[in-house]
Design brief:
The protein is of the alpha/beta class. It has helices spanning about 20-30, 45-50, 60-70, 75-85, 90-100, 115-120, 140-145, 150-160, 175-185; strands at about 5-10, 15-20, 85-90, 105-110, 135-140, 170, 185-190. The strands form two sheets. Strands 5-4-1-6-7 form a five-stranded parallel sheet. Strands 2-3 form a two-stranded antiparallel ribbon.
């Protein structure tokens, strides 16, 4: 790694947490909702994108899905289907984050939504830790009202964290996100979802 790097910015889905899009799509299909055109590995569309941008509430999200499903499915069923894509966070990844914090500022930058974030928080509790033990700060699209690869999300992080782009590396599984970060002067490490990035840092 470049000796100038002082800040590591981690993506969430596919890098820290393992996800299974197909499991989510199948769960929605069982409810009568065709999620496949809208739910993506790197970016969402339609109501799912509005939800990641924080432009709609959980209640409106569920109402929209229920309307499109065309039958009276419950909020609980919808939330369960949406959260079905969340698999687990491997303990070695969390241990690595703690180790990296001894040498770098460590941040999380995620395109996510309030339901996925709440469902993920217990996964950080391994070893008796809290999510705040792993990161110097956390940046979530639904709170920032902007998603990667929009340049504004990288600019906002740098400004809020008080760091310099050339001293910052993004660890992400999306080529588009990495390219957008590079255009902002960041260094990047693209990792394929499900692969071991621990030895690269």
């Amino acid at each position: 790694m470049d000796d100038r790097i002082k800040n590591l910015v981690f993506d969430f889905g596919g890098v820290l947490i393992d996800i299974d899009i197909e499991r989510c799509v199948n769960a929605f299909r069982a409810l009568g909702f065709a999620a496949e055109p809208l739910v993506g590995k790197y970016q969402q569309q339609g109501v799912f994108r509005d939800f990641e941008l924080g432009n709609i509430s959980s209640e409106v999200f569920c109402q929209s899905v229920r309307h499109d499903a065309g039958k009276p499915v419950s909020d609980e069923q919808i939330v369960r289907a949406w959260n079905a894509m969340l698999v687990s966070i491997a303990r070695p990844k969390l241990d690595k984050l703690l180790e990296l914090r001894n040498h770098y500022k460590v941040y999380l930058l995620s395109n996510t939504n309030v339901l996925h974030w709440k469902a993920s928080l217990p996964m950080f509790a391994q070893g008796g830790h809290r999510v705040s033990d792993y990161f110097d700060d956390i940046f979530l699209s639904f709170e920032m009202h902007v998603c990667k690869p929009d340049a504004r999300i990288f600019q906002s992080l740098v400004c809020r964290a008080g760091i310099f782009p050339h001293e910052t590396m993004l660890i992400d599984d999306s080529a588009a996100n990495c390219e957008a970060a590079r255009l902002q002067g960041w260094q990047t490490l693209r990792v394929e979802a499900g692969t071991d990035w621990i030895s690269s840092l």
